[in-house]
Design brief:
The structure holds 2 protein chains of 2 kinds. By secondary structure, chain A is α/β, with parallel strands linked by helices. Chain A is built from 9 helices and 11 strands. Chain A has a single domain, classed as P-loop containing nucleotide triphosphate hydrolases (Rossmann fold, 3-Layer(aba) Sandwich), CATH 3.40.50.300. Classes of the chains: A alpha/beta, B mainly alpha. Chains A and B meet through helix 3 of A and helix 7 and helix 9 of B.
């Protein structure tokens, strides 16, 4: 059996006196697509930040590709929500993707290899024809895909996505999911989401995070199980397409 | 109107007069410094940190005051206001950057403190400086027409430093301005780059204070770049357009203020403000 891509052993994390993660132990296998779900404040984003080495645990051990997270971060591509960026920032799609190669500049300039890698990454997410389009002119879904391309251009072996469909409309969501579908065959993916459609389509494994972590196969994820673990606290976006067709535009529903 | 055009003729003659180089120095300083304003203004506007540039500008007054005080008290001829302003600009840039990187939640408080403390310290240094009273007006409102050959050399040197640094660090600085956290995750020293950016802003502000004074400095850093941001779609193009606009405003300001005998700095700033208003109107008309 190959070594895990991510390994948490007895990891505890607190912000001040607030307990966020408590003695968490789990592994993520290579090539696995793992969806991280859980209530707000349960520790989902902290989990990603621990994998990235942006914060350090109070106790326990984290290994990413067998190394401490801060030493493995070059192998990890991080895709935050596109909404956090200034949409008017004067860069085009290719400029953003090239940021994934900032650690490989030569005398302050991108090499031809960097530019080719950026174009390949854009092609991978189906946006090669949008390379010179300003970031401000891209749709929410396209921006999100540009950020994925930026993560791919790093040469990452592990892709972390934080609520990738949270701010994109349904018309572009299908294209976005197609991009992710292609990627999961080549790369290990961990994504934080509230979108149950996304979980059923992309996930192999689900990590239910609420200070503790429970690992399940996607097929085992049932409403009863979720209620049992989280006492009804968990909120998931459920079947957005169906609700959209019925004119219900609320973003969340209790599972 | 006729008098004004007559004055423009005099301006042109004065530029060509071999015996009176000051106007030529002023024009050259304005043109060279415009390159700095265009480059650094691009970062300031897109990163939305004009308030930091304003704080650095005001902190420079402490450096100017300290330099005058030390020069007179201890007879240190090398301790010039320009040197004082460079030291103060770099120190305040590093302090603001350190606070921003380490204790982000107190950033606005520290920026305000540096802003006010710089002005207060400057006033007190000048008050206690031995000798005749110092005319602080030229520092507060600027006077490009007293540019010397040495000032011009320093302006060119600072401009060259900003230009070379920008060429070498452009992609990394753009990365830091767009997404500092991502740059850090790539193993690039984002903290150093942010401090470098603030130091570049500090050096530009030193040149600006010479031209427009402390109070109006921020206007010439922000307005041409903000106008350019409405015309250009990428940061490097915004920098080029902003440099061109800064040059235009500097020449127009000097050409207008010389025959009308009005202060150059405020005239330059008003030209820049008019340019920004036009850029806003053009964008709205284009929609």
């Amino acid at each position: 059996m190959s070594a895990p891509v991510v390994s948490f052993t007895g990891v505890t994390f607190r912000y001040g006196l607030t307990r966020v993660l408590d003695g968490v132990t789990f592994d993520i296998a290579p090539g696995d697509s793992t969806c991280v779900i859980g209530p707000n404040g349960g520790g989902k984003t902290t989990l990603l930040r621990l994998i990235l080495g942006l914060v350090e645990p109070r106790a326990g051990t984290i290994r990413v590709f067998g190394e401490p997270p801060d030493q493995a971060c070059r192998l990890v591509g991080y895709v935050p929500q596109a909404i956090r960026y200034d949409p008017l920032f004067p860069v085009n799609a290719r400029d953003i993707v090239l940021m994934g190669r900032l650690d490989r500049l030569r005398f302050g300039f991108f090499t031809r290899e960097c530019r080719e890698a950026a174009m390949e990454a854009l092609a991978e997410v189906g946006l090669a024809d949008r390379a010179t389009t300003p970031f401000s002119d891209l749709s929410g879904g396209q921006r999100q895909r540009v950020l994925i391309a930026r993560a791919l251009a790093t040469g990452a072996k592990l892709l972390l996505l934080d609520e990738p469909t949270a701010n994109i409309d349904l018309t572009v969501e299908a294209q976005f999911l197609d991009s992710l579908d292609r990627l999961r065959e080549k790369i290990t993916i961990v994504l934080v989401t509230h979108d149950i459609d996304l979980i059923s389509r992309l996930g192999d494994t689900v990590l239910c995070v609420n200070h503790k972590v429970h690992r399940h196969a996607v097929g085992d994820l049932k409403g009863d199980l979720l209620r049992e673990i989280y006492s009804g606290e968990l909120r998931l976006e459920h079947d957005r397409k169906t609700r959209h067709q019925h004119g219900d535009h609320s973003s969340c529903a209790h599972d | 109107m006729t008098e004004f055009f007559q004055g423009l003729g005099e301006f042109w003659e004065a530029l060509r007069a071999p015996a009176a180089p000051l106007l030529r120095y002023a024009l050259a300083a304005g043109l060279i410094a415009s390159l700095t304003f265009g480059i650094v203004g691009g970062y300031v506007v897109t990163r939305r940190i004009s308030y930091i540039a304003a704080a650095i500008a005001h902190s420079i007054f402490a450096g100017i005051g300290a330099a005058v005080f030390l020069e007179r008290k201890f007879d240190l001829a090398w301790c010039t206001p320009l040197l004082g302003s460079i030291v103060a600009a770099i120190l305040s840039a590093l302090l603001i950057g350190w606070v921003s990187l380490r204790v982000r939640e107190r950033e606005d408080t520290v920026i305000s403190a540096i802003w006010a403390t710089g002005m207060a310290a400057g006033v007190l240094f000048l008050y206690f400086a031995p000798g005749p009273a110092v005319n602080a007006e030229s520092f507060i409102f600027g006077d490009i027409l007293i540019t010397s050959r040495a000032d011009l050399a320093v302006t060119a040197l600072l401009g060259a430093i900003v230009l070379v640094t920008n060429v070498f660090f452009y992609h990394r600085l753009v990365g830091v301005c767009f997404d500092e956290e991502f740059v850090r995750l790539r193993g690039v020293n984002a903290g150093f780059l942010y401090l470098l950016l603030l130091c570049l802003i500090g050096l530009s502000v030193v040149l600006l204070v010479r031209l427009t004074g402390i109070i109006l400095a921020i206007a010439l850093l922000v307005l041409p770049a903000a106008s350019a941001a409405r015309l250009g779609r990428r940061l490097w193009s915004i920098m080029i357009i902003a440099t061109g606009l800064s040059m235009l405003y500097s020449v127009a300001g000097l050409a207008f203020s010389y025959p009308t005998q009005t202060p150059t700095g405020p005239v330059v700033v008003l030209f820049a403000a008019a340019g920004y208003a036009l850029a806003l109107a053009r964008k709205k008309a284009g929609r």
